[in-house]
Amino acid sequence: MSGSFPMYGIKTNHRVCRKEESMNLILLSGGSGTRLWPLSNEVRSKQFIKLFKTKDGSRESMLQRVCRQISELGSDVAITVATSKAQVSAIHNQLGDRVSICAEPCRKDTFAAITLAAAFLHDVKKVPLHETVVFCPVDPYVESDYFKELRELHGLAEKGGANLSLLGIEPTYPSEKYGYIIPKDKKRVSTVLSFKEKPGAAQAKLYIGQGALWNAGVFAFQLGYILEKAGSLAAYTNYWDLYANYGALKENSFDYMIAEKEKHMQVMRFVGKWKDVGTWNTLTDTMDEEIVGNAVMDGMCKNVHIVNELDIPVLCMGLENAVISAGPDGILAADKERSSYMKPFIDQMKQQVMYAEKSWGTYHVLDVEQESLTIKVTLNAGEKMNYHSHGRRKEAWVVIAGSGKAVMDGIERHICAGDILVIRAGCRHMVAAETELKIIEVQIGKEISVRDKQKYPEEV
Fold first, then answer.
1. In sequence order, what are the residues at sequence separation of 6 or more whose Cβ sits closer than 8 angstroms to the Cβ of residue 348?
2. Under 8 Å between Cβ of 41 and 353
3. Helix (H) or strand (E) run with residue 256 in it
4. Is the pTM above the cut of 0.85?
């Protein structure tokens, strides 16, 4: 696509590509985590829950599964995860440095997230404006053929036949949960005529008869295209300016702000396995085991799944079409179909996040009192916390497993199982793990808050 991108002071008159097979792929990883409660929460969305068994018997999350599948395409696929600030630590924990991360300073809808990611690619990753980028959600349950189609979609967009190229899913039933793309015809690649919001079952059936496709939220376009479009809708000069003024961006979907207004669009038809695993009902359809964790069910149970992250057993007897999920944040016992409607009830619950993954390991809240908080901290081997202090609380650490080092006000000491450290308010401290290190941390104070933390450069 030829065009100009005045906000960046760059003009292109022809399409220039690096190598045809290279691809920048942006995974959109958002969501607040309410639909898979109690295992998901505001910092641990559904894509981080490790439910899928791998060939070696271990378990991986949706995020890890998707990135593994993408890596099988070849090493020339550059992955960037566009996410909320709250999810950055979990992504580092599960993927390490294998991906780039573009974090929103606050949660917005897909238009803002895609605009920020596009600016990040150009200004931080130095991707040229004329290169094609593919954006797709991180959470569909798919097989490797889906990602091969994404590469083909990238190639289709590279040819420049349209400003915006989409991947549409061949419907398997007249769903009322998805939006629809109406193509000009039933060819594998077709011009897009219009979009339709979530219809009733009867209308969905009519759309499908016309060749309509489910809108999977997968887009491919020249990087400069979205930056030029966004520049006409929001005033900013580059990624850092956009980040600083991110809160002022309109909170709307990419479909509403861009796709529905674009006149030159094409859609590629995908016929293959694709499942939105946004609820317990759909997620359990993808699980190859009925029980994950410490649980037992009797022979009278039918179509029942149990997922237990607690250290206590779960017994299930005589139930049908049910899901039982137990985790640090709560316990769910629901009819599978009804589990899709739990959001209003979860929104009424006011509870502290009890479990989260950090870049260095995990923390699990064991007890909450008015003036104390008890946490089990697990640091992965070779990882460390930031050097920091707290102004309004003191802490006591009991090392229960592993070894490492602690630094307190610049003084370093070796620590191992059985050691106890007392940290006064204002003391600068950090801990680093040689082996996997497990610590019981008791925080004591009248005002215990995650905001009561000041970071420092390391002294040792």
1. none
2. yes
3. helix 254-257
4. no
Residue pair 445/393 in contact by the 8 Å Cβ criterion: yes
Cα–Cα distances (Å) from 14 to 2, 4, 21, 221, in that order, read 5, 11, 19, 15
Q: What residues contact 101, with CB distance under 8 A and at least 6 apart?
A: 80, 81, 83, 88, 91, 92
Helix axes 223-233, 110-123, angle to 10 degrees: 120
91 close to 101: Cβ distance less than 8 angstroms: yes
**What single-letter DSSP state applies at residue 48?**
G
Give the H/E segment covering residue 286.
helix 280-286
Q: Is the pLDDT of residue 419 over 90?
A: yes
Cis peptide preceding 313, ω within 30 of 0: no
| Cα pseudo-dihedral 376, 382, 388, 392, rounded to 10 | 10
pLDDT tens figures, 86-142: 889 889 989 988 899 999 998 888 899 999 999 999 999 999 999 999 999 998 899
Angle of CA points 346, 349, 355, to nearest 5°: 85
Contact criterion met (CB below 8 Å) for 397 and 421: yes
Lowest mean pLDDT among 6-10, 83-87, 99-103: 6-10
Q: Backbone phi, then psi, for 414, in 5-degree steps?
A: -80, 140
Q: What percent of the chain has pLDDT over 70?
A: 94
Residue of 264, 46, 207, 74 lying closest to 137 (CA atoms): 46
What is residue 401's three-state secondary structure? strand
The DSSP code sequence of 313-327 is -EEE-S-EEEEEEEE
Q: Which H helix or E strand runs over 182?
A: strand 180-183
H or E, element range at 181: strand 180-183
The pLDDT of 337-349, averaged and rounded, is: 87
Note the maximum CA span of the chain.
72
Question: Looking at the DSSP assignment, which residues form a beta bridge with residue 330?
Answer: 327
Amino acid type, 386: N
Dihedral class, residue 361 (left if φ above 0, else alpha if ψ from -120 to 50, else beta): left
Sign, Cα dihedral of 110, 113, 118, 119: positive
- The closest alpha carbon to 101, from 120, 122, 73, belongs to 120
Q: State the CB neighbour count (10 A cutoff) for residue 460.
A: 10
- Give the residue from 94, 109, 111, 165 showing the smallest Cα distance to 134: 165
Mean pLDDT score, 290-295: 94
Distance (Å, whole) CA 442 – CA 460: 25
Backbone phi, then psi, for 260, in 5-degree steps?
A: -70, -15
Contact 340, 276 (CB under 8 A): no
E strand or H helix that includes residue 394:
strand 394-401
